[in-house]
Design goal:
The complex is a heterodimer of chains A (88) and B (250). By secondary structure, chain A is mainly beta. Helix content of chain A is 12%, strand content 39%. Chain A contains two helices and eight strands; from the N terminus they run αβαβββββββ. The longest helix of chain B is centred in the middle third of the chain and has 13 residues, at 129-141. Classes of the chains: A mainly beta (88), B alpha/beta (250).
């Protein structure tokens, strides 16, 4: 097993995102703050083997979002995303 | 039903009761569940399953829903991974009448609705075929006649899940075409593909000019190979919807 095998996609973060958001976030579009690429969150790269869940840009691989859950608390770091367009 | 663009209720764990167990292959079992107040799902969505040990330790995994939205009961199909934490229990220990903790439906990106315009190209590797079969069951249950092709990569014919159902559908529905790629072992006289899915195979089974939409599900490397191949043969990247299974899926 190497890094390639650990790569998942936004579908794998859908349950965790549903704990935090009341809209379906895998069909929301997000803009990468680093490279400007826009992708549906279901299509981004996800690494769930770290202490938290890390979402990365499918184009430039920079970190879009980090979510750490510990008991009754969440840490949500979204500095890698310029904006999210959520279908309402 | 969890439609995109609607505010959803908070997601909660609930109990489902095992109503039926179906042996699909030597390593794969379908769990048919009775879930009270199930809100309904869309083809391609998954559920999270959580097991709790007596000491409180919890392990959680995602499983694609195999049943159609139209089906009365919820079904998930589980491949037993020998070093897995969850799948050996689900595939071997569980008996009819047991309760299982789950939440869902989850996801919205890897979803197909029967009223979407076609044609529909489905490419599955191993147990990655499960959400694709949910789409096929939805297509059949809704009476949709959208032209559809399934390319299913498995190690051998014995490893093909839902084989009877797929062969029957291919024989009875002239808008559905089925191809197998058997990567390790082929029976004598095998006329299907006998190797891993590559660009040449995709060129043969893809619709001309990448028309319609495609769904690709399987292990990460399989999905990446197929997705790249589909783009190479003419599919627009945003029309290749992907779902990757990880090594910790057990």
């Amino acid at each position: 097993m190497d890094e390639q095998d650990l790569k998942l996609d936004g579908n794998a973060a859908a349950g965790l995102l549903r704990e935090l958001f009341t809209f379906e976030l895998t069909t929301a579009c997000g803009r990468c703050e680093n490279c400007g690429a826009i992708a549906e969150m279901g299509a981004v790269m996800v690494y769930a083997n770290a202490p938290g869940t890390v979402l990365r840009c499918p184009q430039c691989e920079s970190v879009l979002m980090r979510i750490v859950r510990d008991g009754g608390r969440y840490w949500l770091d979204v500095r890698g995303i310029s904006w999210l367009e959520i279908r309402a | 039903m969890a439609l995109p663009g609607r505010a959803l209720t908070p997601i909660a764990w609930q109990l489902g009761e095992v109503a039926e167990l179906v042996d699909e292959t030597a390593r794969v079992k379908t769990l048919v569940l009775e879930v009270p107040d199930w809100p309904g799902h869309r083809a391609g969505q998954h559920v999270d399953v959580r097991l709790t040990a007596e000491d409180g330790y919890q392990a959680q995994r995602s499983y694609s829903i195999a049943s159609a939205p139209e089906d009365e009961r919820l079904a998930i199909t589980v491949e037993r991974l020998d070093d897995g934490e969850v799948s050996p229990y689900l595939a071997e220990e569980l008996v009819v009448g047991d309760k299982l903790e789950l939440r869902g439906p989850i996801g919205g990106y890897f979803v197909w609705e029967a009223d979407q315009s076609g044609p529909l190209l489905l490419v599955g590797g191993g147990s990655g075929v499960v959400p694709l079969v949910a789409m096929l069951r939805h297509r059949a249950a809704s009476g949709a006649a959208v032209p559809t092709r399934l390319l299913y990569s498995a190690r051998s014919l014995e490893d093909v899940i839902y084989r009877e159902e797929l062969d029957r559908l291919a024989a009875s529905d002239d808008q559905f075409e089925l191809s197998y790629a058997l990567t390790r072992e082929q029976p004598a006289g095998w006329t299907g593909y006998g190797r891993r899915v590559d660009e040449e195979i995709l060129r043969e089974i893809a619709y001309p000019n990448g028309e319609g939409v495609s769904f690709v599900c399987g292990p990460t490397r399989f999905v990446e190979t197929v997705a790249d191949g589909l783009v190479a043969v003419g599919y627009a990247p945003e029309r290749v919807r992907t779902e990757r299974f990880g090594p910790t899926g057990g």
